[in-house]
């Protein structure tokens, strides 16, 4: 039973990438990929999509990137548009702190 639970999750890889970036604005995409369980190329694609949609900004600092989240952006699914990214991230940050 436990093996079958790992085949799907409630949150998308996009949400997981946002969670990683919210925890560390200087995180390496290699580390994001490992934490989320995707390839580094997939992490790069997701970051690019999130950046193009306005959910995060990427700034080059020397040889590394720094990320800034736009927490006021709405969630994208029609059922979720009344909620903001910051609310979702805040919920998970609270849960980890408890």
TrEMBL record:
CDD domains: HTH_ARSR
Organism in which the protein naturally occurs: Rhodoglobus vestalii
Descriptive protein name: MarR family protein
Highest classification ranks of the organism: Bacteria, Bacillati, Actinomycetota, Actinomycetes, Micrococcales
Top-rank taxon, per record: Bacteria
